[in-house]
Amino acid sequence: MIDETLRLGRERRFLVLLGLICLALIGGALYMQVALGEAPCPLCILQRYALLLIAIFAFIGAAMRSRRSITVLEGLVVLSAIAGAAVAGHHVYTQFYPTVSCGIDVLQPIVDSLPLASVFPLGFQVDGFCSTPYPPVLGLSLAQWALVAFVLTIVLVPLGVSRNRRSIR
Fold it and tell me: Disulfide connectivity (predicted)?
């Protein structure tokens, strides 16, 4: 029982770290938006929502005490990361093929009508186009970094859970 408690404590610490990383990524995107003038497109905003959902589910999971509730929230983290990876993948594709539209005419009203767009318009309101080329950060675009973060989350969360729980049973 003590061994299981220690292992679940490790998972909870990992979830807190994951939540903090997601919030830091959103903070970095806000910095680039405000300080560097990089306007977010609809796909950028949807990626921010995915990161926010991952952070929320990770923090809630870290507060849970039972293995089952932590597992459910880790599942929600992975589902949010899959959705984020799909959006980021489409964004990367749009940046490689700028003639493809991100659907600003279709997506902008939908994204701007989501609740956080009215509560926190600076961070969650559409202001740009998906194909706009911004300078890369360490050789990758923001969409590519987001895709890397989502894929790492999709891979590392289940891998860590299975590794951590293998000897519990």
Answer: 41-44
**pTM of the predicted structure, to 2 decimals:** 0.85
State yes or no: pLDDT of 51 exceeds 60.
Answer: yes
Q: Where are the domains of the chain?
A: 1-167
Instruction: Give Cα 160 to chain centroid, integer Å.
Output: 18
With b for 16 or more beta-carbon neighbours within 10 A and e for fewer, the 54-69 pattern comes to bbbbbbbbbebeeeee
Can you tell me the distance from the alpha carbon of 103 to that of 90, in angstroms, rounded to the nearest whole number?
A: 11
C-alpha distance across the termini of the chain, in Å: 11
Q: Read off the pLDDT of each residue in 44-58 and give the average, rounded to a whole number.
A: 93
CATH code linked to domain 1-167: 1.20.1550.10
